[in-house]
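Weekly puzzle thread! Below is a chain. First person to post its structure in C-alpha cell form gets bragging rights.
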Amino acid sequence: MSCDLILVLDAPSPREVTPALKQLSGTVRWVKVGLEMFTACGPDCVREIAGLGFNVFLDLKLHDIPTTVAKAVESVSRLPIQMLTLHTGGGREMMAWAVKAQQQHAPNLRLLGVTVLTSMSGQQLNETGVAGTPEAQVVRLGRLAVDAGLRGLVCSPLEIAPLRAALPVDVALVTPGIRPRDAKADDQTRVMTPGEAARAGASYIVVGRPIFKAPDPVAAARAILAELQSA
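Winning reply:
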C-alpha cells in the first residue's frame, strides 16, 4: 500500500505561498486548502492553486443538517478539488446525504470523514461528553462513516492500525499529526513520523510547517517522500 504527501497551506492567501509552491511543483502533488485560506479568499483560491498543477484537498469539515451539507457538497463540486472533508459527528443521515450529492454531482470527488481532531487529548474528548478513549471513538465514527458510504477518513496516525483492522482495505486514511523526527509537535498531541504512519497503513500524510519552515522546503519535502517510499 502506497502513501503520498499532502502539503498544508496554512496561510490566508495563495499569494503568500505561491513562491514556495512553484518551487515544490513537481515534487509535491497534493495540497490542502483549509478554513483560513478559504474564508479569506473563497473559491478563487482553490482555482488559483489548482491552476498551478496541484491536486486540491479542500478541508472544510462540513457539519450541519443533512440538506445543508448536501447543498454545500453540490456547490463545492463545481471547484477543481479531489477531496473534501465533513465531520462524522454529524451522523449517518448527514453523511448519506453528502454521499448522494457527491455521487450525483462529482463522482470522482472523495469525501473524507473527520473523526476526532488530532489536537484533542483523551481528557479533552471526555470534556465533550464522550466517555471512551479517542481510539474507541475514532473506530466507532469510522465504522459509521463507511456504513454511510464515505470512502475515506481523516484520523490521527495513532488510530491507523485499529481502523485498518476494523474497516475495508480500500478505505483511504488521511493522517495529520505527522512530524519528522526532529520537528516540533506544535499544536498536535497524537503524532507519528512519516515512516511510522506509512508502515501503519496511512494512504496520505498531511504536513505543513516542517516543510514551509525548513531552510530548504524542497529538500524537506523530498526527505519526507523518500521516507514514505522506503517505508
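Puzzle host: Confirmed. Bonus trivia for everyone else. The chain has a mean pLDDT of 92.
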